[in-house]
């Protein structure tokens, strides 16, 4: 991790070096599920949706949760990288993004017990088999709630297969032209399920103690790092806390962060929640920023990204100036305004990073 040198520009709009990548600024498109693929294949929607952010001047785009196996999809409409046929459609996206001088990463994911569910606007809970659903797996046989599918507890063979699926997806991500891989271990999906004692009641080597609960994620990280070029960054998204008694929490996140650095992880994307319906989240502007600050202080070798209710350019700039995080991830603000970075530059007194073809839009 290397920070930019001092500059008169706002920190939000200064470069940041992460391994071999030099991000032109600190604004990152947070992974956002769009539920718009068929058979895991990207299409024109994904080209236009992700391409607009490249034109809008963000520092880095991270694509939505991209399943490493068919059973790992959140919904039947999720993107995938479990098959070689999925490489070329995603390559169209990365080619376009790179042609605009932008950078793009992919979030590799497995939904575990939260798989085979409806897209939010199509319904709630489990998708029946007759409507395209499937049998789901998890650390144990306990569902997320009564509306979600009951998972089959994973065997050690299942665990080895999932680990291999992540590794194979990382190889495909390299062929597809991605600049960065993020492993999704947050929001109650499979790797987070193994981390939290609220979702992992196993009594074997993958459950019980902290060392056992983090074992699967560490194995996945090693497998991905081995199959992802060493000069390209590897990021992990974590839920820093379950917001529930007896669950995963900040101190466990700090300890895991230290271990992930030694496994070749370059940066952490720190979110929270999603593991249990019993969560009680204390929502406010930048409510997850303290988690980033804690990890940045306790594991300073790692790059740190914060996300969540950071709606204004000034708030984003303040977080960077205070040393809370290195990168700012945005989701809803960029959905509402793909040119958010242009507005941020204007508000913070910097030159907007517009492509030449959009220069006439300046008044």
Average pLDDT, all residues: 95
Structural class: alpha/beta
> How many domains, as an integer?
1
Instruction: Count up the helices.
Output: 11
Which CATH class is shown? Alpha Beta
| Rg for CA atoms | 19 Å
Overall shape: it is globular
CATH superfamily: Aldolase class I
Largest sheet, strands/sense/barrel: 8 strands, parallel, barrel
- Portion of residues in helices? 25-40%
Following the backbone from N to C, one meets helices and strands in this order, namely EEEHEEHEEEHEHHHEHEHEHEHH
Low-confidence stretches are 1-7
Span of the ends, CA to CA? 38 Å
InterPro entries: Aldolase_TIM, OxRdtase_FMN_N, YqjM-like
Keywords: Flavoprotein, FMN, NADP, Oxidoreductase
Cofactor: FMN
Protein name: NADH:flavin oxidoreductase/NADH oxidase
Question: Which features does this protein show?
Answer:
eight-stranded parallel barrel; alpha/beta; globular; two-stranded antiparallel ribbon; 363 residues; TIM Barrel; disordered N terminus; 11 helices
Description:
Keywords: Flavoprotein, FMN, NADP, Oxidoreductase. Residues 12-348 form the NADH:flavin oxidoreductase/NADH oxidase N-terminal domain. It comes from Deinococcus hohokamensis. With 363 residues, the chain is an alpha/beta fold. It has one domain: Aldolase class I (TIM Barrel), CATH 3.20.20.70. It is built from eleven helices and 13 strands. It has helices at 44-55, 87-99, 156-175, 190-195, 210-213, 215-227, 250-262, 289-298, 313-321, 332-336, 340-348; strands at residues 16-18, 21-23, 27-29, 60-67, 79-80, 104-109, 137-138, 152-153, 180-185, 234-239, 267-271, 303-307, 327-330. The strands form three sheets. It has an eight-stranded parallel β-barrel with strand order 3-4-6-9-10-11-12-13, surrounded by seven helices. It has a two-stranded antiparallel ribbon with strand order 1-2. Strands 7-8 form a two-stranded parallel sheet. Helix 1 links the parallel strand 3 (27-29) and strand 4. It is globular, with a radius of gyration of 19 Å.
């Amino acid at each position: 991790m290397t920070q930019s040198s001092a500059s008169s520009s706002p920190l939000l709009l200064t470069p940041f070096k992460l391994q071999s990548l030099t991000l032109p600024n600190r604004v990152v498109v947070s992974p956002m599920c769009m539920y718009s693929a068929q058979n895991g294949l990207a299409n024109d929607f994904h080209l236009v949706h992700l391409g607009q952010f490249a034109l809008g001047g963000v520092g880095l785009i991270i694509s939505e949760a991209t399943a490493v196996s068919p059973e790992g999809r959140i919904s039947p409409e999720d993107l995938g990288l479990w098959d070689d046929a999925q490489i070329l459609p995603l390559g169209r996206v990365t080619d376009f993004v790179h042609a605009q001088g932008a950078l793009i990463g992919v979030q590799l994911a497995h939904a575990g017990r939260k798989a085979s569910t409806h897209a939010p606007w199509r319904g709630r809970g489990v998708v029946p088999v007759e409507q395209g659903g499937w049998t789901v797996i998890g650390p144990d046989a306990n569902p997320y709630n009564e509306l979600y599918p009951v998972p089959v507890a994973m065997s050690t063979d299942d665990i080895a297969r999932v680990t291999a699926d992540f590794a194979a997806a990382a190889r495909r991500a390299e062929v597809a032209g991605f600049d960065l891989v993020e492993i999704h271990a947050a929001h109650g999906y499979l790797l987070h399920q193994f981390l939290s004692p609220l979702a992992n009641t196993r009594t074997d080597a993958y459950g019980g103690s902290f060392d056992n609960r983090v074992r699967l994620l560490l194995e996945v990280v090693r497998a991905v790092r081995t199959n992802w070029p060493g000069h390209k960054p590897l990021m992990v998204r974590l839920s820093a806390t379950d917001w529930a008694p007896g669950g995963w929490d900040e101190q466990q996140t700090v300890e895991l962060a230290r271990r992930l650095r030694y496994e070749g992880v370059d940066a952490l994307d720190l979110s929270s929640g999603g593991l249990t319906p019993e969560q009680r989240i204390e929502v406010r502007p930048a409510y997850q920023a303290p988690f980033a600050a804690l990890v940045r202080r306790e594991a300073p070798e790692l790059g740190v990204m914060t996300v969540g209710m950071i709606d204004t350019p000034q708030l984003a700039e303040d977080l960077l100036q205070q040393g809370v995080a290195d990168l700012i991830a945005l989701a809803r603000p960029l959905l509402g305004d793909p040119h958010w970075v242009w507005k941020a530059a204007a508000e913070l007194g910097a030159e907007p990073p517009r492509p030449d073809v959009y220069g006439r839009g300046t008044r």
